[in-house]
Amino acid sequence: MELLRIATAGSVDDGKSTLIGRLLFDSKAIYDDVLDSAEQHSRKQSSEYFNLALLTDGLKAEREQGITIDVAYRYFSTPKRKFILADTPGHVQYTRNMVTGASTADVALIIVDARHGVVEQSRRHAVIGALLGIRHVVVCVNKMDLVDFKESAFRSIQNDLHALLKELKIESHHFIPILALKGDNVVESSERMPWYKDGPLLPHLENLQLPNRTQNAPFRMPVQYVIRPLSNEYHDYRGYAGTIASGSIEVGEEIAVMPSGATTTITAIESPQGEVSSAGEAEAVTIRIADNLDISRGAMLTSSTEKPQTDNTIDATICWMGERSSLKMGTMLRIKHTTHTARAMVNALECKIDINQISVTESCEELKLNEIGQVTLRTSEPLVFDEYSQIRGTGSFILIDETTNETVGAGVIGRPPYLGDVGS
Fold first, then answer.
1. Which of 277, 300, 298, 275 is nearest to 219 (CA)?
2. Which among 125, 174, 218, 234 has most CB atoms closer than 10 A?
3. What is the pLDDT of residue 66?
4. CA-CA distances (angstroms) from residue 393 to 245, 246, 410, 418?
5. Distance (Å, rounded) from C-alpha 19 to C-alpha 27?
6. Residue 279: which pLDDT band, with cuts at 50, 70 and 90?
7. What is the average pLDDT across 234-238?
8. Which residues of 213-236 are buried (b: 16+ CB within 10 A; e: fewer)?
9. Are 200 and 207 in contact (CB under 8 A)?
10. Average pLDDT over all residues of the chain
């Protein structure tokens, strides 16, 4: 079955965890021990109802405070589709966690409190979703009971967010009025909102067809490991292992080895199930080639006709995650891009992105925790990359503090389309 990755987003107390809990509960995707634990905590809290949010808020601090802090991943399936749900925090201080949860998502599920409408965090998460190339947004207007299930309250929020999503160049989006606590329009249609005719959330997610962003993408495979068996029986064996980031390959096909640009021919493709004649995106394989070339971890096997870019200088959008320091011009870091690690220096801080106004601050001296900005990096070794908007796997990276070894930044190569030429 096809897999759909979903990241939830929204402001504090909009009901993200409750909605996911409802989806898991109604699809019977909860283990008995998790269900028992959540029921016990509900009783301890003297709740009048079973607190569905406890099915995803697993940390002690989350249950005590009633908020989501870390990203919680939950897996479930229906007869039509498999799902991975990332429940991300709503607090501004945990923006970096939201970036982490949304970085692999196909769909953003933005939850909005019907009483409060579109707030700062609603906008923030919509902007981050656009930045990370999410292709479809589902807006769930929750707590409809607190506005007497009025259609006018729903339509007002729909109009506001529709304008924002259009501005962010997210053309594919859908709006659903829900009451997550009681399950209205979550799995079954709500009798209390007969004016809404487009169906509940789960069937929409089951039937959602997204365009394959990498269907015609060129072949890319970062080399993770060079296999050289010690056995005399395989003394001539040399294989290059990794996960295909995009495209597909066949035995006999000509490929290029980057960054050198040397070309060679594939003689064998080995998968966990044995030798295969072809392989495609997301498959872990070992490739054998016809020529003896200098290939090590960090190199990239690519299409010989559609090669990626190779450069020591990259323009990128970064979310700064460092708590102990800010990002400034001249800062030295380590960059991990695919399987390649190098040193990187911040050559320029072009601008800071104001996510509330979808604009930039022209003068930018530093990026602080959870701030997002456009930067230019210069690396000690050439990077082999694509624009993030074209291929996610070869267009993203993380920044690591050389002293503490902490991940202090996450970046995507290129410029968000909704910024246009501002700051360039």
1. 300
2. 125
3. 42
4. 6, 8, 13, 21
5. 12
6. very high
7. 82
8. ebeebbbbbbbeeeeeeeeeeeee
9. no
10. 85
Residue written as tokens 């990359």? Answer: 385
**C-alpha 388, offset from chain centre:** 12
pLDDT on residue 419: 60
Higher-pLDDT residue of 402, 211: 402
Cα(296)–Cα(246) distance, integer angstroms? 20
Tally the C-alpha atoms within 13 A of residue 143's C-alpha that lie toward its C-beta: 15
- Distance between the two ends of the chain, CA-based, in angstroms? 43
Task: Yes or no: say if 267 and 275 are a contact pair by the CB < 8 Å rule.
Answer: no
- Output the six-digit token pair for 309: 């870019």
Domains of the chain and CATH, by start: 3-207 (3.40.50.300), 220-303 (2.40.30.10), 309-419 (2.40.30.10)
pLDDT value, residue 59 = 38
Q: Under a CB-based contact definition with an 8 Å cutoff, are residues 102 and 129 in contact?
A: yes
Pull the structure tokens for residue 277.
């004649």
Per-state percent for the chain, helix, strand, coil, to nearest 5:
20, 35, 40
Distance CA(128)–CA(164), nearest Å, equals 13
Helix 120-131 vs helix 151-167: angle between axes, to the nearest 10 degrees? 40
Name residue 333's amino acid: L
Question: What pLDDT, on the 0 to 100 scale, is given for residue 60?
Answer: 39
Beta strand 172-177 pairing with 136-142? parallel
Q: Which residue would you say has higher pLDDT here, 423 or 287? A: 287
Read off the pTM: 0.82
